C-alpha cells in the first residue's frame, strides 16, 4: 500500500490570531488539489480555533505542538488532548527537539505524551533526532533506536496506525544545514527496519516517516524522491506562504 505523503508546518511560538489566519488562508491559496498527500499546520494552542475557522472547507489538517498525557486536572500550564481536539486539531507533535532540549522532556515523558495523544484520538507525530555531538561520536543509530523504542513503549500495533515518525537531526533544525540525501535515506531505512523488528514488516511499510531539518523549496523535491521519506516537518519555511506552498506542491 502506498503511503500518503504528509507535509507538516510547525509554527512554533509565532503568529497571533490575525497573522495566523492570514498565513493559513494564503497557504490554502497556494495549494493545488491533491489525493496523494496531506497537509497539516501546527499553530500555537491559542490560535488553533481561529485558524480552524479560517480553514473551514479547506483540505488542511490542524495539529497541536504538544499535549499532556492526562485528560484533566491539576497540571498548570499543560493542555489536554481533548482540549486541542475541541479547538480543531486532529494531531499533535510530540517530543520535538526544542521540547527535549530546552524544556528537558525525556523519553519517558515523550512516551506518556504520545500515549495520551493516541488515547485521546489524535494522530501523534513522534520527533526523534541525534545531536551533532552524537553524530560525530558515531552514536546516531543508537540514539535513534533508544528514542524510538522508548517513545513507542506500550504503543500497540493498532495505535501505530495513528503514529507518524519525524526524523529531525538536531543539527539541521533551524540551522539552514539539511542532512544530505544519502544520510536521510540511510536513517529512514534504518528506522523502517527497526519498526519491522519492534512490530512487523507490514506495519513498518505502512508507517509514515517524515524528515525535518531546514526543508525548503530548493531541497524538497530531492528529499521527497527518496524511497523511505514520506513527508516533511517544516519549521522556518512554514512561516512563509509561498515557501510552504512550494514545499506542499513538491514534485
Ligand atoms: C522543526 O522545527 O521541526 C524544523 C525542522 O525547523 P526548520 O525547518 O526551521 O529547520
Task: Detail the topology: elements first, then pairings.
Layout: E1 5-10, H1 17-30, E2 37-42, H2 48-54, E3 61-64, H3 81-86, E4 91-94, H4 97-102, H5 107-119, E5 123-128, H6 132-136, H7 140-151, E6 163-167, H8 181-198, H9 201-206, E7 208-212, H10 217-224, E8 231-234, H11 241-248
Parallel strand pairs: 1-2, 1-8, 2-3, 3-4, 4-5, 5-6, 6-7, 7-8
This protein binds phosphoenolpyruvate.
Phosphoenolpyruvate binds near residues 10, 168, 234, 236 and 237.
Can you walk through the features of this model?
With 251 residues, the chain is α/β, with parallel strands linked by helices. The protein has 11 helices and 8 strands. Strand 2 (37-42), helix 2 (48-54) and strand 3 form a beta-alpha-beta unit. Phosphoenolpyruvate is lined by residues 10, 168, 173-174, 212-215, 233-237.
Question: What is the structure about, briefly put?
Answer:
The chain is an alpha/beta fold and 251 residues long. 41% of the residues lie in helices and 16% in strands.
The geometry reads as: globular
Q: How much of the sequence is in beta strands?
A: 15-25%
Order of strands, widest sheet: 1-2-3-4-5-6-7-8
SS summary, helix count: 11
Strand count, sense and closure of the main sheet? 8 strands, parallel, barrel
Oligomer: single chain
N-to-C CA distance: 20 Å
Mean pLDDT over the residues: 97
Helix content: 40-55%
Amino acid at each position: 500500500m502506498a503511503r500518503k505523503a504528509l507535509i507538516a508546518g510547525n509554527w512554533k511560538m509565532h503568529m497571533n490570531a490575525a497573522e495566523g489566519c492570514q498565513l493559513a488562508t494564503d497557504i490554502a491559496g497556494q495549494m493545488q488539489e491533491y489525493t496523494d498527500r496531506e497537509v497539516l499546520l501546527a499553530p500555537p494552542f491559542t490560535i488553533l480555533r481561529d485558524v480552524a475557522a479560517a480553514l473551514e472547507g479547506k483540505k488542511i489538517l490542524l495539529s497541536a505542538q504538544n499535549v499532556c498525557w492526562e485528560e484533566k486536572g491539576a497540571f498548570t500550564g499543560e493542555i489536554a488532548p481533548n482540549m486541542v481536539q475541541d479547538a480543531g486539531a486532529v494531531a499533535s507533535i510530540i517530543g520535538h527537539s526544542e521540547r527535549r532540549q530546552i524544556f528537558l522532556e525525556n523519553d519517558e515523558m515523550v512516551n506518556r505524551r504520545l500515549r495520551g495523544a493516541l488515547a485521546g484520538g489524535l494522530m501523534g507525530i513522534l520527533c526523534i533526532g541525534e545531536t551533532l555531538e552524537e553524530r560525530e561520536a558515531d552514536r546516531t543509530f543508537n540514539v535513534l533506536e533508544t528514542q524510538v523504542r522508548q517513545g513507542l513503549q506500550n504503543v500497540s500495533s493498532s495505535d501505530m496506525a495513528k503514529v507518524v515518525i519525524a526524523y529531525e537531526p538536531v543539527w539541521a533544525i533551524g540551522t539552514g544545514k539539511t542532512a544530505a540525501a544519502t544520510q536521510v535515506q540511510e536513517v529512514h531505512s534504518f528506522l523502517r527496519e527497526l519498526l519491522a523488528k519492534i512490530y512487523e514488516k507490514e506495519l513498518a511499510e505502512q508507517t509514515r516517516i517524515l524528515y525535518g531539518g531546514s526543508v525548503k523549496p530548493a531541497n524538497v523535491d530531492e528529499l521527497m524522491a527518496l524511497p523511505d521519506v514520506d513527508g516533511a516537518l517544516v519549521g522556518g519555511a512554514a512561516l512563509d506562504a509561498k515557501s510552504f506552498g512550494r514545499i506542499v506542491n513538491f514534485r
